[in-house]
Amino acid sequence: MHEVLGTTTDGDLVINVGPQHPATHGVLHLVITLHGETIRKVDPHLGYIHRSIEKMCESLTYRQFIYVTSRMDYLSAHINNHACALCVEKGLQVEVPARAQYIRVLMDELTRIASHELWWGAMAMDLGAFTPFFHAFRERENINDIMEETCGARLTMNYMVPGGVMADIHPNFQKRVKSFIQLFRSKFDEYNEMVTGNIIFQNRMKGVGYLSAEDAISYGCTGPTARGSGVSCDVRKIMPYELYNQVQFDEILETGGDSFARYMVRLREMNESINIIEQVIDNIPEGDYQAKTKAVLKLPKGEFYTRVETARGELGVYIVSEGGTTPYRIKFRSPGFSNLSALDHMARGSKIGDLVAMMGTLDLVIPDIDR
Amino acid sequence: MFSLSGITTALHDWLSGRFSEAWVMLIEMLLAGIAVISFFAILGLVLVLMERKVSAWMQIRLGPNRVGPKGMLQSFADTLKLLVKEGMTPNGADKLLFNMAPVMAMVIAMLLMAPIAFAKDFQLWDINIGVLYISAVSSLSVISILMAGWASNNKYSLLGAMRSGAQIVSYELSAGLAILTIVVLSGSLNMNDIVMAQENGWWIFKGHIPVIIAFVIFIIAVTAETNRAPFDLAEAESELTAGFHTEYSGMKFALFFLAEYVNVFIVCAIGATLFLGGWMPFHIGNWDGFNRVMDFIPSSIWFLGKTFLLIFLIMWFRWSFPRLRIDQLLNLEWKYLLPISMVNILLVAAIAILGWHF
User: Fold this and answer.
1) Quick check: A152 pLDDT over 60?
2) Which of A287, A309, B13, B50 could staple A99 via S-S, CB 3.0–4.6 A?
3) pLDDT, tens digit, 9 for 90 and up, residues B170-208
């Protein structure tokens, strides 16, 4: 029986979670060594959704390659596009009009809320509670509708272009965002009631998946994953881009380092994003939404790097230009990849159920990890 | 007062007039068997639809609404689909055990239905050790799950089956002790006697706080025994894909599914019988007028109403709670529920001896 079941020499059970598995939210393949129910080792295998986006970008012009990046971290498509646009603008040394900056920040924060909403529902589903997923989608749907009106898309927006944004905001935009803020505020307590305050949920989250601040730094974790361990790493604070040095907001930090701390960081971030939107929404200045740029963009010879804060952490875009119309080399530093690398360290010694909860709190988006 | 006993008596008289005694008995057994199987099937369909509607209601969506009026024929369509699907047996599986497990799960669920009193004088088997029989047979259900998990030759199934083994064996203790409180109060193991003992009030009202505690423990324990969320570790979709029935497809899977829902019905029926008076209408002491009004509602309606109330409660759990972890699950039983039930049964015994209950 042992050979059939696939065991290690010490009699530990080796199971393959994924690439098709309800817990992995995509084609992530984890090879887990189990001792009874206790996890000895987690070995993530990647590559199932590798589309060689970095290579594809080398043959696309600076206007075109942004569209591909919506498919990396599809839950924060706006922020991916934003990062690329920022990098190209840095190379071109274009000044983005104020109106475009405001719109970009609004879109980024709405995306962050939408992404965290989906994470919240999916994570509760990982823990076996199905209902929160639908409640989260009720609010997320409103954001998608707002996006659809202005950008014409609900998932892969491709709205931010070098020099500004693709089109002006819809006349209804401000009104709808304000009504969304109201709706979100009224529903937010429900989230705490349904999930955060639940005793079973707290028992499942507290004290599991501990990641110390030192480990978070050494694994290169960023975003809510690292902030749950008390590492200050919000790019919006430490290297502000666009408007972020003009708006008032707090960097959410929790010191627990466990799954619950990471959960609380994301939950509080949603509220903080709402605060940012409230400050910005009424002050959108009149003017151009796009700077005047040449029809064919050519970056000067050199290397350019920008970083932004996506919903999952720090996204870096690195462009090497030879002076032509297409980049010579592009590298994306995706937050999910580094965050996933900490999973093995966190999961050792805990139970299978905890592994699923930890993966939930890391908020993995597999196309972001694989690209 | 309406009663279903009229139908059965008339049928018995009609048969007795035509056949010899042995034939009458055989035919009646056959009819009872057919009745159980059809009831079983209808119950499965109704409960699956109910679960989908309840979950839809909680999840702000509509649920099945296309097949038949308000989607009421959805379960029939699903059953038809499952029936025509190929029943696969994976390579390397233990063929005999693999195919036997779903049948066994169903047979055990059917056996459990025998001593339940569905209405006044409407019972398949009025056995004097009814409660004992139910606790004995219900413990067999773990065997079918272990069998399925072991025979599937799948690591997820094996893990699910092992979890389920630990879980069912543990929670049976609390469920048994909770049942025992009512046995102590009623002084009988017979289902009918227990119902009759609640003529002047249901045990949950008559037995003070200890019976309420026993009722809560019973509901928690049977939720765990039937592998329903938040105790659905044997299936644990996000962890073990589908747990012990990962490898099952088609009708074999449907039998497990059916057995799960019928088990839920049975444990709720037992809970309703023991704590909520079974088919006994809501009576208050010697308020004759009130009691007589209550008697006008047929006993079968009382029974099904109480049972479905408890089923709704268990479905409510499923759609609102996250799942426990295996060690937390066992901690809950051995560290909290079991000691509480043990103290509780002493209290109930004291109440019964001193005659403090109403």
Assistant:
1) yes
2) A287
3) 888 888 888 888 888 888 888 888 888 887 778 777 777
Is A364 within 8 Å of chain B by CB? no
Locate B188 and state its tokens.
Answer: 């009988």
SS3 state at A250: coil
List chain B residues with CB under 8 Å of A355. Answer: 239
Confidence at residue B18, expressed as pLDDT on a 0 to 100 scale: 81
* Sign of the alpha-carbon dihedral angle for B271, B273, B276, B281: positive
Of A5, A131, A356, the CB nearest to B239: A356
d(CA A77, CA A115): 10
What is the end-to-end Cα distance of chain A in Å, rounded? 39
Q: Are A307 and A315 in contact (CB under 8 A)?
A: yes
Domains of chain A: 49-370 (1.10.645.10)
Question: Is A354's CB within 8 Å of B325's CB?
Answer: yes
Report ipTM for this prediction. Answer: 0.81
Which long-range CB contacts under 8 A does B7-11 form with residues at least 24 apart? B8/B121, B8/B122
B124-147 pLDDT tens trace: 777 888 888 888 888 888 888 888
Distance between A350 CA and the closest CA of chain B, angstroms: 11
If you count them, how many residues does chain B have? 358
Q: What count of Cα atoms within 13 Å lies in the side-chain half-sphere of residue A103?
A: 28
The structural domains of chain B, with segments of one domain joined by +, span 30-84, 93-354
The residues in B 45-84 lying below 8 A from A, measured between CB atoms, are 55, 58-61
- Chain A interface includes B323 (CB < 8 A): yes
Nearest CB among A23, A126, A131 relative to B319 is that of A131
Placement of tokens 């646009």 in the chain: A85
CB atoms within 10 A of CB B275: 27
User: Which of B298, B131, B112, B300 minimizes the C-alpha distance to B203?
Assistant: B131
